[in-house]
Write a structure and sequence with these properties.
This protein has 278 residues and is an alpha+beta fold. The protein is built from 6 helices and 10 strands. α2 packs across α4.
Length: 278
């Protein structure tokens, strides 16, 4: 049983990843300006802004765009009212029955959590597998569609955020290092019973774990989620590093695509090109 980036965003079983230095160099962009990106897809064109508050992710994305790394890749995982995910390098020439979601480059990008950046509709964020440092995939990203929330649903989302945070702090607690090490070793095996047993053990510990500061969704964020919408339960667990500023209808169009196994669109949804706008 192997984990895939297609399973990111679900508290399930994940692989331990190394935290290697991204290959991109720092890009000098004035703090009051944001790099804009044009993403042309088979469903239309989106314009995105990259946040200067997340320089590692911004610079890595810019480097990959400059190398045309995203051209002709697929949105390989699509879930309506949630998000659209792309960036698997193996998707470029993938046959219709290929399992996608595992492809990546040989490094990770350090997490960059910012309390002001959240998963509102159109947010650009990075996929990741579970690891103690929550490092991001080098290539795979997702764009939020989400839905509109009321206060009751936001309270439930806040609870989910804190459950994910509790699990994160458990696997970083030295008292449970042996458990995490065992889980990390077995995760890429076919021993589903042992994987489930260890995963459940971590979740049981997380249920009663309180040695961290619980997260509260700010009122300003709540207002956005109640009007524009998004996926609030992902906040402070995945790095948000950009935002769609034009072409929001493209997200909705892609999200409506019929999907098959593992949420892959039955008809390919392709990223035709991604370019920096000057």
């Amino acid at each position: 049983m192997k984990t895939h980036y297609r399973l990111v965003l679900i508290l399930s079983v994940f692989a331990l990843l190394c935290n290697c230095k991204p290959k991109s160099e720092s890009v000098n962009i004035p703090i009051d300006e944001r790099q804009k990106v044009e993403m042309i897809t088979s469903h239309g064109t989106m314009t995105l802004e990259l946040y200067n508050e997340t320089p590692l992710h911004r610079d890595n994305f810019i480097t990959l765009i400059s190398e045309k790394a995203y051209d002709s890749l697929l949105f390989h995982r699509v879930i309506e009212n949630f998000m659209i995910q792309g960036g698997d390098p193996d998707s470029k020439y993938a046959a219709s029955d290929n399992l996608l979601g595992e492809g990546d480059l040989n490094y990770r990008v350090n997490a960059e959590f910012n309390p002001d950046l959240f998963h509102k509709k159109g947010a650009l964020a990075t996929a990741r597998e579970e690891s103690p440092n929550r490092a991001s995939s080098a290539m795979q990203f997702f764009i939020v569609q989400g839905k509109i929330f009321n206060d009751s649903l936001l309270d439930s989302a806040q609870s989910r955020i804190n459950k994910m945070l509790a699990r994160h702090y458990v696997i970083n607690d030295s008292a449970y290092k042996t458990l995490w090490d065992s889980f990390s070793k077995v995760i890429d095996t076919d021993d589903d019973a042992q994987i489930q047993k260890l995963n459940d053990s971590i979740n049981v510990l997380a249920e009663d774990y309180t040695n961290f500061e619980p997260y509260t969704i700010p009122e300003s964020h709540r207002k956005v989620y109640k009007t524009i919408g998004g996926t609030p339960h992902l906040d402070q667990n995945y790095t948000v590093f950009g935002q769609v500023i034009d072409g929001m209808e493209v997200i909705d169009s892609v999200a409506k695509t019929k999907t098959g196994a593992y949420d892959r669109p039955i008809s390919d949804v392709r990223i035709l090109s991604v370019r920096l706008k000057h």
